[in-house]
Amino acid sequence: MNRRNMLYGGVAVAAALAGAGAAWWKFQPHAVKEASPGAGAADPAAQASAAQSFWNVSFDTPDGKKLSMSSFRGKLLLVNFWATWCPPCVEELPLLDYFYQENKDKNLQVVGLAVDQPSAVRTWLQTKPLNFPVGMAGLAGTELSKSLGNVAGSLPFSVVFGASGQLLHRKIGKVSPEDLALWAQLK
Questions:
Q1: Which helix (H) or strand (E) holds 108?
Q2: Which of 15, 28, 119, 127 has its CA 20 to 30 A from that of 85?
Q3: The dihedral of CA 42, 43, 44, 46: what is its sign?
Q4: pTM of the prediction?
Q5: What is the distance between the alpha carbons of residues 146 and 148, in angstroms, rounded to a whole number?
Q6: How confident is the model at residue 28, as a pLDDT?
Q7: Is the peptide bond before 118 cis (omega within 30 degrees of 0)?
Q8: What is the average pLDDT score of the chain?
Q9: Of 44, 67, 55, which Cα lies nearest the Cα of 163?
Q10: Which residues on neighbouring strands pair with residue 135, listed in sequence order?
Q11: pLDDT digit string (tens) for 94-130?
């Protein structure tokens, strides 16, 4: 009986370690080739279609108004998927806000899509307001980010659309000042 319990215990530990390892891998930020909008996507044609349909989407804002993505067409658009419970997300928001303030007069727009509970986002924004628009994407934001190439559904995730609406860049993980400097030069 003791041997059987040890065997079951060993199998349970191995299964737990395998599950923990898989979860760790899934939620780690993975590098995505910046120069190739199709990188990391299982189906580049589906991703291109998702990028085009992105412009037809709208979100509620924290104050209950509508935020239509089509209103930003014609501008360089940086969309950042974030959540209040995601430490790297909230760490990068001040940098994104500063970037927006410095570049808003240069036909560049930043939009934050919160993959979170609306009440948590409203509370967070009361203490740390942002100057760029925020849309309440909720859990559907995870699926939207996956359709744009965020295969793992990780946060933070950022995409950059050109003024003509095409997906130019995307990044899983926290943005850096170097990323922003590169993206500011895009058209």
A1: strand 108-114
A2: 15
A3: negative
A4: 0.76
A5: 5
A6: 39
A7: no
A8: 84
A9: 55
A10: 113
A11: 999 999 999 999 999 999 999 999 999 999 999 999 9
